[in-house]
Design a protein that fits this description.
Layout lengths: L21 E14 L1 H7 L5 E2 L5 E13 L5 E12 L2 E12 L3 H12 L3 E3 L2 E7 L2 E8 L2 E10 L6 H5 L8 E15 L5 E29 L15 E24 H6 L1 H8 L16
Parallel strand pairs: 5-6, 5-10
Antiparallel strand pairs: 1-3, 1-12, 2-4, 3-4, 4-5, 7-8, 8-9, 9-11, 10-11, 11-12
Length: 289
């Protein structure tokens, strides 16, 4: 069969574009830990408040998204901090990493439609043998995240409070707080960011399985471009190994920031979306990663 395409697609054929937007039958590790409160405050945009002012609550996952509705399968890992904007509570994503056949469509859809700070990486692995499981992420030759868990019980009962309805056949809703932005240029040629939109991304999780686990180790190699290691583990809270389906219920704008207030936010958003090569006069990397 000959496949042909065109740069013109009739409008009615575009309707299924990311509709639905769902990540079905994703499998892997979900983790939570306490990180340094000062670090959490430093990397959270100033319009947010930490969920707990006395500590940082970090959430991460490493999964195989086996049946996305918009791409072939791909692997994904994300790291976030729990925070609030006024009365709205959610996770603020610092970064997500993607690899595999569907990674490009997963990246572009998440960044362009919802403001998710996604990047492509070289390799993400999720593996399980018996009651032991592991997930790791390699980006630009560095293993920026490597977690090992033992299925059985949480490190701390607080993990159950963070995921009270996570169980086989259970369902929960979650919110992520994200930013989209518009760019401009100052008279001297500098790139500016004159407008930011705060986005609330609401999703629904349907659980086929959720197996409580304890974190046995988390190591994160420091990286200039992908600084997951900044959120060092002060105290592990717990983990789980889960198979679930995640669908986007709504994406809404909840605030608009302009002028200097918007422009200043790029200091918080840059590393999750861009590499230092874009702001360095000298940046080269050769060979295979």
């Amino acid at each position: 069969m000959t496949n042909t395409g065109s740069y013109f697609i009739p409008r009615e054929q575009v309707h299924p574009f990311f509709n639905p937007m769902a990540m079905r039958n994703q499998e892997g590790l979900y983790l939570a830990w306490e990180t340094d409160a000062g670090v959490a405050r430093n990397v959270l945009p100033s319009i947010f408040e930490p969920l707990d002012p006395d500590r940082g609550l970090a959430i991460a996952y490493v999964v195989n998204i086996r049946e996305p509705t918009f791409a072939p399968w791909y692997m994904e890992g994300g790291i976030s901090l729990l925070c609030r904007y006024g009365d709205t509570v959610g996770g603020y994503f610092l970064n997500l990493q993607l690899s595999g056949p569907g990674a490009q469509m997963g990246l572009f859809g998440g960044r362009e439609l919802g403001g998710l700070p996604k990047k492509l990486c070289e390799r993400i692995v999720v593996e399980r043998t018996g009651d032991s499981a592991r997930g790791f992420i390699e980006a630009k030759g560095r293993r920026i995240f490597d977690a090992q868990i033992e299925i059985g019980t949480y490190n701390d009962p607080e993990m159950g409070q963070l995921h009270p309805t996570a169980k086989p056949g259970g369902q929960d809703r979650g919110s992520a707080l994200l930013f989209t932005y518009e760019t401009g240029q100052a008279p001297d040629g500098r790139r500016t960011f004159p407008m930011m939109h705060l986005i609330k991304w609401d999703s629904v999780h349907d659980y086929q399985s959720w197996e409580p686990a304890r974190i046995t180790s988390i190591t994160m190699e420091p990286s200039l471009d992908d600084p997951w290691a900044e959120l060092a583990v002060v105290r592990p809270i717990g983990a789980a190994y889960s198979i679930n389906s995640d669908r986007v219920a709504d994406i809404s704008r909840i605030a608009q920031l302009e002028g200097d207030q918007a422009d200043a936010l790029i200091s918080y958003l840059f590393s999750g979306r861009w590499d230092r090569s874009t702001i360095s006069a000298r940046a080269q990397r050769y060979g295979q990663f």
